[in-house]
Each structure stands twice: as C-alpha cells, then as structure tokens.
C-alpha cells in the first residue's frame, strides 16, 4: 500500500494538532501575536535517533520528548507556552503507523501544556530520524528569568528528583540489547523499573511553576545535560562560584534503591542528563514561598548549596568534603 504524500500527511496527522495561528497549515507561515504587555521567549532543540533517544523507543514517547525538552526551556525562563514549530526529517524506512504514534504523543503533550502546533516542515533524510522543535512562549515584559543573574548569597535549588532518566536510559539500552543489564537493576521492583523508564522517555516540563519562578527565582535553567555540569554553566555565565552538596540532591525511591545496590552510581546520577528539572537560584527569604508553591503543584523542591563570589570552579561536596567528579554533564562535542 503506497504511503501518503506530504499534503495528505499534513492534513491527516499534523492539522489536528494546529492552533488558530497555524491557519490550518494551508499557508507558508503562521501568525502569532504575543499577549499585550508581554515579551516573546523562543527556544529550539533538536533530538536525533541514537543520540537523544533510542531508535526503537516508542514513537509516542519520541513525540512527547521532542516537544517536552523545549517546553522545559520555556518553563525555566518563567514563560507560558504559546505554540511550536516542528521540522521532522524522516528516514526512508518510516511507516504510517510510526508517524501516527509519534503524532499521538506529540499532540498529547501539546494539549496538556496548551502549546499548539503553528507550522513547520517535513522532509526525507538519508541519515537518522531527526526532529527539531522551536517553541515560543511569553512572559510579562522584562520578567524573563535569565541564567546570568545568580549572585552571592543566593540559594541554589532544584525541582523534582535527579538521576532517574540516566538510570532509565541504562534500562532501555539493556532492553534493546545494546548493553548488558546493570547489576543494580536486580534491586528494583517492577514499578521502580517502569518509573525510571518513564522518566527517561517522558520528560515532565515544569511549566506549572513558571509564575512562581517569575516571582521568586533570580536565575534559572533546565537540567538537560546533567545537574553538576549545568550548575557549573549557570555559575560561569553569572560570573560567580558556588557549592553543590551531593547529600542534598533529591533522589526518587527507585534511584535510592539503585544507589544502595551500587554506591558508585552517584557520579552518573548528577551528570547523566535528561532530568528536565528546573535549576535555580533564589534569595533566602523567598525559599519558603517557592517550596510551598511547588508542593501545592505536587513538585518536589530542594536546596542544594549556595552561590559564592569569585571565579573559582563549582565546589562539589559530599558530607562536607570535596568530591571529585570527572565529568559534570553530557557533551555533544
């Protein structure tokens, strides 16, 4: 049975995801007006098979991740989503069933977080499946939370739990036959395994916290490449130093079980990436309000350290003593 052409693909799979500004995906461009008194916030991220996800990951999960990683960036800036553009480069062996699953996951994330499709492009590639999303959001004028505003005396904080996605990736690679199953996997219950796999495949952008971040955060970014490395980036961008207490890093029960079985997992948990939590700094007198507002949304919140003055590298501590960490984050190059 022949595969549908591009126009039919757009009408069947992408038009149902489109918002009013997409003009039913029948024009060459979209229209978008930011709310009065607001700035536009734009971000773009690409994900590539074999680099950011496994080729055999469920197509719905790939769709959710493609949009979710971008909405995580908007959340860290205190921005509310407005819409997104999608470029999808399909390899020669794509199937209509795969595309239907991908759009189901993509559309689910778009509906849940009120971020409709505005337009994009679909092309064929001789390389691996590649997906690029540009997400657009809005913040009240002048209120975007930048990563360059960390200052001495502020607390360093993070939402949620850290390291789950790195463990989930290890489980997924074992399930796909790419790596042996890690020894710590035997210490997990079936529910804990499922939780870790979901944390790897299904990022949960903290968009619900955007307003709280605008009120209380001084600097922020999302944790995409690893907690330790991303914190070091934010401090360098702000021209300051700081501390990270590893014993304060929030771990899920599943990650705690894995760490108890294999104590040398700790470096990987704080450098593995794909957490998509919010890393932020806040004044000490704003911490209680932030914690309360996060708890009301069912989101964890932890204080990890303190911003300090000076050009020194990030000080990573465990039980108060320096802790060597060879790699702080995922590196593309």
Summarize the structure in words.
With 333 residues, this protein is α+β, with helices and mostly antiparallel strands. It folds into two domains: 6-140, 60s Ribosomal Protein L30, Chain: A, CATH 3.30.1330.10; 155-322, Phosphoribosyl-aminoimidazole Synthetase, Chain A, domain 2, CATH 3.90.650. 34% of the residues lie in helices and 23% in strands. The protein has ten helices and eleven strands. The chain has helices at 6-14, 59-76, 96-112, 164-175, 190-201, 210-216, 227-238, 253-261, 266-271, 287-296; strands at residues 38-48, 80-90, 117-124, 130-140, 155-159, 217-222, 241-245, 278-282, 301-308, 315-318, 321-322. The strands form two sheets. The chain has a seven-stranded mixed sheet with strand order 6-8-5-9-7-10-11. The protein is globular, with a radius of gyration of 20 Å. The N and C termini lie far apart (42 Å).
């Amino acid at each position: 049975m022949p595969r549908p052409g591009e126009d039919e693909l757009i009408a069947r799979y992408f038009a149902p995801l489109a918002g009013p500004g997409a003009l039913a995906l029948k024009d060459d461009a979209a229209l978008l007006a930011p709310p009065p008194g607001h700035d536009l916030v734009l971000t773009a991220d690409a994900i590539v098979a074999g680099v950011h996800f496994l080729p055999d990951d469920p197509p719905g999960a790939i769709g959710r991740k493609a949009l979710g990683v971008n909405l995580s960036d908007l959340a860290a800036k205190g921005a509310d989503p407005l819409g997104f553009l999608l470029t999808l480069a399909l390899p020669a062996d794509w199937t209509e069933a795969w595309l239907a699953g991908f759009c189901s996951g993509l559309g689910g994330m778009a509906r849940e977080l009120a971020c409709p499709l505005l337009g994009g492009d679909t092309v064929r590639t001789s390389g691996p499946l590649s997906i690029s999303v540009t997400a657009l959001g809005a913040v009240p004028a002048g209120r975007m939370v930048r990563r360059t505003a960390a200052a001495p005396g502020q607390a360093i904080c993070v939402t949620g739990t850290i390291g789950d996605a790195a463990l989930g990736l290890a489980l997924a690679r074992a399930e796909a036959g790419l790596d042996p199953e890690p020894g710590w996997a035997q210490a997990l219950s079936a529910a804990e395994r499922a939780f870790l796999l979901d944390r790897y495949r299904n990022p949960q952008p903290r968009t619900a916290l955007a307003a709280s971040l605008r009120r209380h955060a001084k600097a922020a970014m999302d944790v995409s490449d690893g907690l330790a490395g991303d914190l070091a980036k934010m401090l360098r961008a702000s021209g300051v130093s700081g501390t990270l207490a590893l014993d304060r890093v929030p771990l899920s029960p599943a990650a705690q079980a894995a760490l108890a079985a294999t104590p040398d997992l700790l470096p990987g948990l704080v450098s593995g990436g794909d957490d998509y939590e919010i890393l932020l700094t806040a004044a000490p007198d704003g911490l209680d309000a932030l914690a309360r507002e996060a708890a009301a949304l069912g989101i964890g919140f932890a204080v990890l350290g303190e911003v300090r003055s000076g050009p020194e590298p990030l000080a990573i501590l465990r039980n108060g003593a320096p802790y060597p960490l060879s790699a702080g984050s995922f590196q593309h190059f």
